[in-house]
Amino acid sequence: MELFWRRLLTANSRLSQFIGRQKASLELLGSCLLIWCEDDWSAARFNMYYDLCYREDNMRKPETIPVTSAFYLGWILVTTVGWGIGILDARVNSIRSIAEIPGIMLVLAANGLLIGLVTGFGQWLLLRQVVAEMVQGWVWATAIGTSLVAPLGLAVGTAIAWISFQVRGDIFLPEGSAMFFSPLPMHVIFGGYALGVAQWPILRHIRNGQGGKEGLLWVLGTWAGIGLGVLASSWVRGYVLDVSATPMVRIVVGRVIAGMILGIVTGTILVILLRETGRGRSRPPIA
Q1: What is the pLDDT of residues 51-63, one digit of tens each?
Q2: 150: left (phi over 0), alpha (psi -120 to 50) or beta
Q3: Distance from C-alpha of 154 to C-alpha of 104, rounded to nearest angstrom
Q4: Residue 97 per-residue DSSP state
């Protein structure tokens, strides 16, 4: 009798822990009590009923998240809006001395933080509709990643230019000269990987820690989305917009296009990742 109750309580506790569904627990409990009343209790019979309850209620295929076209279009929209309002760095177009670089980096970081907060919040509102318990930290991950994109890109671009000047034996941005350095907006491409790297830990949590190849896909896809967006933005500003367009209009249109393309690329990859989350479970052992 003692063995019976010990096995019964152990199984019921494990069912509640791993299954989380009262229906399965109650069915198992009722089945075990029925066997006990018939005086036909055995460990083999218990395992048979345990297997039956667990298999029927919980041996599910990996969960498929219902990602709709509205989710995809909403993702593109919020990414477009977030990048469209990032105009704090509108006056930054060239660098004339090394001393200007730290201040410019701060402006670029602040602008990226603004873009990341707006974009991340909008994306979070969409993500929580399909994986509500798994997206904590998405806003800050997006904000931090976006705030690092431009400063890191500027640092890489400046380092490349400095090295090339050193190889030639020239001085990079000498004091008092008319020389200037303008890596903008292509500098964003050099640091575009930062956004994907910052966001992937949250997406990896959604996939229950799985997906090394998917992580690489997300980082490279985000990087490519930023690069394609910048290239398309530069092309539209240079060849499509009328010459009479004001600099601010050119900047806003360019940012909107860059954000839209980034939203399309990352939205497509995200839909692929969310279709199959890999949440299938195997039967927990009986002690």
Answers
A1: 555 444 444 444 4
A2: alpha
A3: 9
A4: S
